[in-house]
């Protein structure tokens, strides 16, 4: 993990301690590696015959540290030496696919909450998907779950029934046996049953903390109460699992609250829409798809208006910074011609294009420590 310079960004720790390194580290700990021997700098986990990976959506390491009193179980286990990073952008669809594939965004191709479908004027919403887009073509690489299953490991995903067979699930988690479970008790029972297999990896997801942060903010009492519930869930899960099974708790990103005075609506700034053919990404990390020959003008306008409030880079500059890891040729046009990563608590909205974002309090997607640093808690 490296500092991102004047903006105070945390650069993604691909091939070291990123979310994409978690399942390969589990595979090595199970004795069924799915990649060449780990380098010293890479994430290492204790050996075990069975692993459970519990992903808590929105549980950034800084948030967990700040509110340790509300999450005593997880906080006591959090070890700074095992902190990880999300990928870029630090958003759910990108992160879940990095976890499930073991690949950085530039390889797996889910490069944001929304991104352009090349050759069209449409955005793919990676959470809602688009039936015209085949997830097997959008993300053609075998997942880490698939590779681990080929090694003879039982791989199970325990998640809400509504997520079964969605585009995002197919792209990110195919290869795992799917167990539908909508409530906490049902999830825990499903995980415990799956974890009895040896060797095995069981993945389980909880999205309620993220939803609460978006709706009420991470400074709200509602978010703090939800954190306490997540902590209790993790502790109950650990108690229900046999001692020989390891539990690793991770997050896909953190979150920051963005007050009204920190928000910029591009609809109110004509200079920000000039030359922009399509606005993608999300409020903390925008992909700008621009008209031919307009890149320099768009960069200049956005840098002038957002001076001190965002990093504005061309696609090549962002790739050169390593934000997306190695970028496959087919993924390159999905990235904005220009990308905008917000600093502080700034948010860049478009109430005409993304009206729902204006209703959210907590946001994520950029490279600040609050969004990028994630816990890797082993119990």
From TrEMBL:
<dbReference type="InterPro" id="IPR017850">
    <property type="entry name" value="Alkaline_phosphatase_core_sf"/>
</dbReference>
<protein>
    <submittedName>
        <fullName>Nucleotide pyrophosphatase/phosphodiesterase family protein</fullName>
    </submittedName>
</protein>
<dbReference type="InterPro" id="IPR002591">
    <property type="entry name" value="Phosphodiest/P_Trfase"/>
</dbReference>
<dbReference type="Pfam" id="PF01663">
    <property type="entry name" value="Phosphodiest"/>
</dbReference>
């Amino acid at each position: 993990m490296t500092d991102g310079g004047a903006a105070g960004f945390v650069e993604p720790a691909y091939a070291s301690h990123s979310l994409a390194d978690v399942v390969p580290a589990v595979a090595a700990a199970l004795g069924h590696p799915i990649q060449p021997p780990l380098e010293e700098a890479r994430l290492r986990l204790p050996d075990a015959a069975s692993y459970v990976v519990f992903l808590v959506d929105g549980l950034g390491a800084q948030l967990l540290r700040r509110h340790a009193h509300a999450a005593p179980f997880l906080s006591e286990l959090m070890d700074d030496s095992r902190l990880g990073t999300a990928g870029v952008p630090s958003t759910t669809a990108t992160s879940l696919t990095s976890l499930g594939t073991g690949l950085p965004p530039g390889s797996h191709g889910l490069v944001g909450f929304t991104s352009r479908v090349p050759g069209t004027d449409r955005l793919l919403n990676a959470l809602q998907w688009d039936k015209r887009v085949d997830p097997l073509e959008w993300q053609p690489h075998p997942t880490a779950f698939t590779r681990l299953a080929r090694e003879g490991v039982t791989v199970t995903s325990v998640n809400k029934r509504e997520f079964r067979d969605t585009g995002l699930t197919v792209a990110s988690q195919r290869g795992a046996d799917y167990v539908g479970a909508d409530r906490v008790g049902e999830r825990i029972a499903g995980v415990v049953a799956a974890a009895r297999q040896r060797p095995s990896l069981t993945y389980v997801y909880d999205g309620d903390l993220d939803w609460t942060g978006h709706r009420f903010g991470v400074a709200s009492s509602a978010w703090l109460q939800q954190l306490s519930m997540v902590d209790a869930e993790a502790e109950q899960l650990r108690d229900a699992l046999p001692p020989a099974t390891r539990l690793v708790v991770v997050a896909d990103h953190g979150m920051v609250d963005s007050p009204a005075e920190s928000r910029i609506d591009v609809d109110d700034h004509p200079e920000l829409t000039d030359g922009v053919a399509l606005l993608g990404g999300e409020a903390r990390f925008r992909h700008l798809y621009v008209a031919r020959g307009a890149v320099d003008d768009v960069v200049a306008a956005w840098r002038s208006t957002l001076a001190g409030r965002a990093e504005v880079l061309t696609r090549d500059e962002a790739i050169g910074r390593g934000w997306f890891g190695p970028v496959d040729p087919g993924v390159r046009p999905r990235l904005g011609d220009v990308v905008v990563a917000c600093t502080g608590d700034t948010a860049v909205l478009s109430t005409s294009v993304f009206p729902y974002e204006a209703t959210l309090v907590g946001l994520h997607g950029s490279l600040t420590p609050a969004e990028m640093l994630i816990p890797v808690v082993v119990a």
